[in-house]
Fold this protein.
Amino acid sequence: MLVLGVETSCDDTAAAVLLDGRTVLANLVSSQDSVHGPFGGVVPELASRQHVRHILPILDGALKKAGIELKALDGIAVTFGPGLVGSLLVGLSVVKGISFRWGIPYVGVNHLEAHLLAVFLEREVAFPYIALLASGGHTLLYLVRGFGKYLYLGGTRDDAAGEAYDKVAKMMGLGYPGGRVIDQLAQNGNPRAVSFPRSRMKKGSFDFSFSGLKTAVWHYLSARGEDKWEAQKVDIAASFQEAVVDMLVAPTMRAARELGVGRIVLAGGVAANSRLRQRMAQETEEEGMAIYFPSPALCTDNGAMIALTGHRWLERGRRDDFGLNADADLTL
Ligand code: KG4
Ligand code: ZN
C-alpha cells in the first residue's frame, strides 16, 4: 500500500510517501524557521501563509522523490489536529481536494498519535511501552498498550518543554527554534554551574511544569545584566538544559517503575535532545529497561509519521468524509 502523509499543524510543511507501512520512499520538510526567527516564536498568520505557498511544491517534490504519480497512491493521511487552525486547514483542504479529484481515500491523523508511533518507522517495539512526548506544543506521558490504546498518565501544567527551550533561547538572543541551539551550546558548558529549580509534583502525579524554571532563568539573567551573563551563557544553557532533562526523566522513569513497564519510547522535537537521550539511556540501562528513540528527523514534525499512522488506520478500513474539520484542541 502506498500512502502519502501530509503535515501542516504548526510551522513545518511536510510530506512523505510510505510503502507498506515501513519503507519511507520520500520524507520532505519545508521549514519556516527563518520566517518566525525574528519573532522568537511561531506567528500563526505567517505560518498559514507559508503553508499555502509551500504545500504544492512539497507534495510534488515528495511524489517525484518517491518516483510515483499521484494516481498510484492507495491513500492519503493528513494531520487534522491538534495545532494551529489556520495551518491545519491548509493541509486538510489540499488533501480533500486531491482525494475528491482522484478518488483516493483519505484519513485525518491525530498529530500526537503520529509522534507516539514514529518509532515504528525504524524498528519494532513490543507493547506496552511508556511514551514521553515532548515537543514545542506538548509534554505528555502515556502508557501505550497497543495501536489506538493510549492511557494518559500526565502532562505539563503550563509550558511545554520545547516551549521552555524556545523562550529561554529568546531571552538569551539565541534565535528560534531554541532547542537545537541550546543543545549545541550546552555541549561545552557545566550543567552544575547554576542551580536552577526543579519543580516537583505531588506524590503519585506524573505531571510536569516548566514555567518556574523559565522565570528563574529570566531572574538570573536580569540580576546579572547582559554584559555579565553573556560570558557565562554556555554554562547557563547547560544548567537550564540539565534542569529540563531532570524534570523530564524523573516522572518518565517513575511511571515505568510503578507500572512495571520495561520499555520507554521518546517522541517529539525535544526527544532529539542529546542530553535527554544520554540520560535516558543511562537510567534505563541501570534499571534493566529498554529505551527507544527515533532518529532526530523523525522526532521533529514530519510527514512520514503521519503516513505511518494513516496507513494503520486505512488498513483497518477507516475512511474520512469531506465533512472532517480541523480541530486545534484535538486530544488523544
Ligand atoms: O515536534 P516538533 O517538531 O513540533 C511540535 O509539534 O511542537 O517540536 C519542536 C520543538 C521546538 O520547541 C524545538 O525547540 C524543540 O522541539 N527541539 C529541541 C531540539 N530540537 C528541537 N529541544 C531540545 N533539544 C533539541 N535538540
Ligand atoms: Zn509535533
